[in-house]
Input
Amino acid sequence: MSEAITIKFETSGGEQIEVQARPGVSVMEAAVMNNVGGIEAECGGACICATCHVYCDNLEDGTVGEMSSEEDDMLDMASAERRPTSRLSCQLRVSEKLKDAVFIIPENQF
Amino acid sequence: MSAVVIVGASHAGVQAAASLRQKGWQEGIVLLSAEGDYPYHRPPLSKAYIAGEKDEEQLLLRAPDFYRDQGIDLRLNEPALSIDPHARQVVTASGRLDYGKLVLATGSKARTLPLPGAEARGIHTLRSIADARHLRSSMQDAENIVIIGGGFIGLEFASTAVKQGKSVVVLEAQERLLTRALPERLSAFIGGYHTAKGAMFRYGALPERYTTTDDGRVSGVQLGDGTTLPADLVLVGVGGIADMALIEPLELKTIAGGIEVDAHGLTSAPDIYALGDVAAFHNAYANGAMRLESVQNAVDQAKSAAEHIAGGNAPLGAVPWFWTDQYDLKVQMAGLPRPGTTELLRGDPESGAFSILQMEGDRLVAAYSVNRAADHMASRKLIAAGQSIDQRMAADIDTPLMKAVAVAAVS
Output
């Protein structure tokens, strides 16, 4: 079993939550497994509900990989404002590259 | 005293508990589960879980700590045994629980086929994680798989099994797949896609009996025409039945095979709600009473009911939507089929990405999209808005569907 990776979530209230995530799971799954509120993920990671929206403000370009056209289309429907750093956390895989990344949770998901 | 007791830690049951806390419900919440596992997502069971792409932890609806932190008394392995509406109590193995409000989220069970030989080993249904574990391990040694029923679960499982190199035959009683759920053109496309990948289909095929080995394992499925298809594993995917085993003493009205509810999830009895697969209601999008077995319906109905229990008002009105993943096809459906609609084809099925739009006059009532997420999302908005759309623009794949909203003539 590969070593857990520390990633962080920041709530809309500004609180930072550090979690240990298994490489290979999605950032959404890491949030759910660690009981981080505000990531709803109603569809369970099928990229069809847009309720696991996050802002990846502190990540350098290319760190989390390209977005599929499907994710792009879904983000247009997300409840909170779409920003240039918006992603759906179910489409982001936890890896060494995400060490110490901060994912900002929007105020609402629906 | 005024605790909410939720029977069934299903998607609907868990969402109802979570939404009650979000709405500020301060009293007790008891969530009863017949299963021993923490509540989980069901859709991946026939796909990513069986395929070994997701493990059980990745299926959880919520972390185990969530229930404790939210003050939700989740009781695993503690099914409701009976309900006493006069005492307002739910009976479980550990005693009697008082309820102020009762939420029935018992879901549905897989329909089975009482054919000769049905007790043989190797014949499966798929509803719960226990079913999926069993199926996943049985699949490893299986070579010839027969799937009875060309519905969503059957087809999703077929794609997983073919990808693992199994020989797969799908038996469909009708002359095409998903007769009630999909337009004919989409049925044909999906059937053709599976065939090209190597699955075989028998339409109008009715299984008569299972053949078995001397040691009690299934060895084949015999059809009405006398042919026997070899099978060392059979999945029966012939639909679900609402689980209403407990409701008799409640004297609730039922309709369309489910417990009749209104737009708040409220049944015909005060203080008793029903949600998700077990509930049936008059659906404006279908123009009739029906049960909807979908994640979206479970979630939205649970939110409406939680709001109502907490003293608010948020009647269910969402456009129904569904999805299914088969191979690299993501099929997304918005709205519900209705009789007498006309069809528009948007895009070319040969390209593998297209949508079929069902129109009532110039209004969109349902949309079926294959690898066209943008069309699906636009359809959800357009169906909800009930707006007239320009059919010529809607049929043009190069025009975003949202732009096809007909501009009212300026007088």
